[in-house]
Amino acid sequence: MNAVSVKPQAPALGAEVDCGDLRALDAAAFAAVYRALLDNLVIRIRGQTLTDPELIAFGKRLGELDFAPLAKTGKERARPHPEIIVVSNVMENGEAIGVLRDAEVVWHSDNSYRDRPLSYSALYALEVPPAGGNTGFANMYLALQTLDPALRRRIEGRTLKHDMTYNSAGDLREGFKPVSDVRDAPGPSHPIIRTHPETGCNALYLGRRPNAYINGLSVAESEELLDALWAHATREKFTWHHEWQVGDLLIWDNRCVMHHRDPFDGGYRRVMHRIQCAGDVPALRSGGREGHPRAAVAA
Ligand code: OGA
Ligand code: MN
Asked: Domain range spanning residue 128?
């Protein structure tokens, strides 16, 4: 088997995985990489040279690839490979080659605004700016586990409505109208505490802050409770911030992490290719427990 080494990064989450060329991973090495992902929530694999078909082939080993159909504003070029979303600020012939520009990307979990949000997302770096554009991750097992008991009682059994209208850079998605009342924002509701189907551990599931609404509360109560949850969930000690190099592949688990991107100077090019896997319908399962090993270490 190819040698696989796993080096945890921040106390809360993240690991660097060294496994050599991803195109040549045998089944046992792939299983070790996959295990590292479940154990560390987000993994970084450096030094890769992948074509789009190779990135797609690797993605298929992680799970059923998803086409993230709503990840477009209508202002960017059609995707040459429907499985691959280009995340970039680059313009060609007056047209954006991808999404999310050079903006700050607010904390979120990918595609929480769908009935079946994504399990994994993987971002592969082709061009990176000299500074800025770092991507941060936060451990939502840990956020749940350390939540103030009084706050926790207020969310138990509750669901959150996840708005589909805007992407995490604040751009209106193709075909949607601006939201004026969060209760009318289009999107599915998911439990605020969900059980990860593979690890069996419970995590806080917040999606994204703008236009979120906790069902059954007044708008004022929902806003106040969401602000308290978000202040807790994005505490620095729950995070790990990754600085990009060309050839990095980052894979994260949307069922138990949120991520954020710093803005960067739009005078530089940043080009990332993303693939993503279909996930389950978020649910709190009987037998869901606390004590994911990575959350225990940092708590
Ligand atoms: C994404 C995303 C962050 C980044 O692709 O889902 O949030 O670093 N990207 O570009
Ligand atoms: Mn994202």
From this structure: 5-298
